[in-house]
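Reagents: none. Just compute today. Lipopolysaccharide assembly protein A domain-containing protein.
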Amino acid sequence: MAILKWLLRIVVFLLLLGLAARNSDPVTVRFFFGQAWQVELSLVLFILFLVGAVLGAFAGWSLATARATPREERSAQPD
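Predicted 3D structure written out:
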């Protein structure tokens, strides 16, 4: 099973590497007040993926702590 997980990870990594290689064209990211940033599309996609992963981790963490709190309070109450 561990070998299958590693093979899947390698395949996903190679697919993402190919996606990054195919999307290396420069793009202009325009910010507010006339600010602009010339960068490769693959870097923009990677940054947006990281932002989404961090936001998802925070949301999952807050849901897990919200679910765990009532359980602890119930077990602390005497019958």
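Residues 2-76 form one domain.
Action item: order primers for follow-up constructs.
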